[in-house]
Amino acid sequence: MSLRVGVCGLGSAAHRAHLPALAGIADAADVEVAAVCDPDRERRTAVATALGGARRYPDATAMLHAGGLDLLVIASPPSCHLEALTAAAEHGVDVLCEKPLGLTAGDVSALEQVARQHPGRLLATVHQYRHAPAWTVLARAVRASLRSGVPFRVEAEVERPGTDPLSSGGWRAHADREGGILGDHGSHYLALCHDLTPLARVIACRRHGAAGREGASVRLRLGLGEARIELTYAGERRRNRVAADIDDGRLQLEWLDDALTVVRRGRTTQGAVGALSRRDFVNRLYQPMYRDLVTRLGDDAWRADRTAETMATARLLSSAFSLAARPATQIDGGAGRAAAVR
Fold first, then answer.
1. Can you give the three-state secondary structure of 138-160, one letter per residue?
2. How far apart are CA 186 and CA 273, in angstroms?
3. Which of 124, 177, 187, 277 is deepest in the core (most CB within 10 A)?
4. Of the candidates 169, 131, 106, which has an alpha carbon nearest to the alpha carbon of residue 273?
């Protein structure tokens, strides 16, 4: 029996990533996009027709009420996520939702309530970066240091010359309602920090700049290690960097756009890899994400882990927003910590 998927929101993310990825695994995984919804009549009609007659609806509530779905993919703006996720869980439908999932403590409480009321239901977030080969190499090295009790430092930097012009409705420019760059890009790296260790904890955060050109700085504790995340929409180019310094420089890894450099005890090697600054590469990561989801959907332990990850990442993001809202001198209890995030 095929996996019947409904797609909520037919903007940029759906067209560039979700629908191509689902089409790419459809034959091998027996997946069918059975229904779509979007408030734009012309858009939903065009997509449904292109899919060969998928059912079409103006909103997620109507689509879920009609029944016949196993998985709801939520690709709408962030302020719509929680309502659609809750409705899906109430209809007995699993969820894969674009990030961010919850910006406030209230959002996190609502998410946790949904998970408690619908145990066993998959509530997963789109975090495709973990499927990048360069991240696999870097994460393996950091996890080895965690097991060995060796200190480490992780750095992540994202530079963008403004918000994504392809996003439908320009939601990324509405920082207060939709999360801005902290919700857009920061949530990915908070998820990667949790991927390294469930001990990840946000200790400081600062947001700055005008909406659409804002930046954010986040600091985390990762057990024996620490992480720094720097994000900006006021950059001069598209640039992504992830680096790890392990055991006081004895092992260094840097994933800078399309190059992965490893320095081990003074010896340097470098290889070409996919770049997170390239939309086409990021979009291609959706296919292994979907393949993994479809393959493991029947694994109860995996479902529980993915739902727990969703909750943990939402808590990290909510904590970052909460800390950013405090006066700088109150971050982590004093001016010393505030100075660390300037």
1. HHHHHHHHHHHCCCEEEEEEEEE
2. 22
3. 187
4. 131
Can you say whether the dihedral through the CA atoms of 143, 315, 292, 77 is positive or negative? negative
Pairs from 140-145 (Cβ < 8 Å, separation ≥ 24): 141/244, 141/246, 141/251, 141/253, 142/196, 142/225, 142/244, 142/246, 143/196, 143/197, 145/224, 145/225, 145/246, 145/247, 145/251
**Superfamily assignment of 3-98 in CATH?**
NAD(P)-binding Rossmann-like Domain (3.40.50.720)
Q: Tokens 């982590």 correspond to what residue? A: 332
pTM (2 d.p.): 0.92
> The domain 130-290+316-325: what is its CATH number?
3.30.360.10
- State the Cα–Cα distance between residues 13 and 27, nearest whole angstrom: 22
Report pLDDT digits (tens) over 100-158.
987 889 999 999 999 999 999 999 999 999 999 999 999 999 999 999 999 999 999 99
Phi, psi angles (nearest 5°) of residue 35: -155, 155
- State the DSSP string of 193-210: HHHH-TTEEEEEEEEES-
| Count of Cβ atoms closer than 10 Å to residue 308 Cβ | 14
Residue 227 and residue 225: Cα distance in Å, rounded?
7
- Domain boundaries for CATH 3.30.360.10 within the chain: 130-290+316-325
**The pair of three-digit structure tokens given for residue 32, joined into one six-digit string:** 């069918």
Q: Which of 151, 221, 212, 136 is nearest to 180 (CA)?
A: 212
